[in-house]
Amino acid sequence: MFQGETAITVDDKGRLAIPTMYRDQVAGECANRLVITYNPFEPGCLWLFPYAEWEQVRDQVNALPKVKAAHRDMQMKLVGAAAEVEPDGSARVLLPASQRAAAGIEKKAVLLGMGNKFELWSEQAHLAKIRQSIGEDEITDEMAVLRL
After folding, report:
1. Contact criterion met (CB below 8 Å) for 122 and 105
2. Which residues form the SpoVT-AbrB domain (predicted)?
3. Which of 16, 60, 118, 136 measures 20 to 30 Å from 27, CA to CA?
4. pLDDT tens per residue across span 66-97
5. Which CATH number do you get for residue 44?
6. How many domains does the structure of the chain reveal?
7. Which ranges constitute the DSSP H helices of the chain?
8. Is 1 helix (H, G, I), strand (E, B) or coil?
């Protein structure tokens, strides 16, 4: 279970170091295997899944009927772009250049632990998203019963 927000620096080679607080989990629970792919819902964000979690997501997405354009788009963005990455001896993973460019991730980024996966945001996209508030008209029935 991943949670928390960490400011990350991406080095000149496009690598990011897995934060110390997650290294044991990534090594043990994830067997040092992560899959990085696009977030099909939010620009400026990539998803990093533990490999076992990824297999379930991949299979669900691939099972969608290909006759709908939205399904094909999701399959392309999630499955077609997926890249398996493994931390090196310094706990760094190489982010694919095409994904970094598409998400606008440069030197500074933000890594969010989101339960079953990580979200890697460009610093600018993360700041813009955090500054947005949830309006009353956006509150769903499921949100309304939360005790916040």
Report:
1. yes
2. 5-53, 82-125
3. 60
4. 999 999 999 999 999 999 999 999 999 999 99
5. 3.40.1550.20
6. 1
7. 20-28, 51-62, 69-75, 97-103, 123-131, 141-144
8. coil
Examine the pLDDT at 119 and tell me if it is beyond 90: yes
Taking the C-alpha atoms of residue 103 and residue 91, their distance in angstroms, rounded to an integer, is 22
Q: What is the extent of the structural domain holding 23?
A: 2-144
pLDDT (average), residues 121-142: 96
User: At a CB cut-off of 8 Å and minimum separation 6, what does 122 contact?
Assistant: 44, 45, 103, 104, 105, 106, 109
CB 43 within 8 A of CB 103: yes
- Whole-number pLDDT of residue 110: 98
What residues contact residue 52 under an 8 Å CB cut-off, 6+ apart?
30, 31
How far apart (Å, rounded) are the C-alpha atoms in residues 120 and 48? Answer: 7
Segment 30-58 mean pLDDT: 96
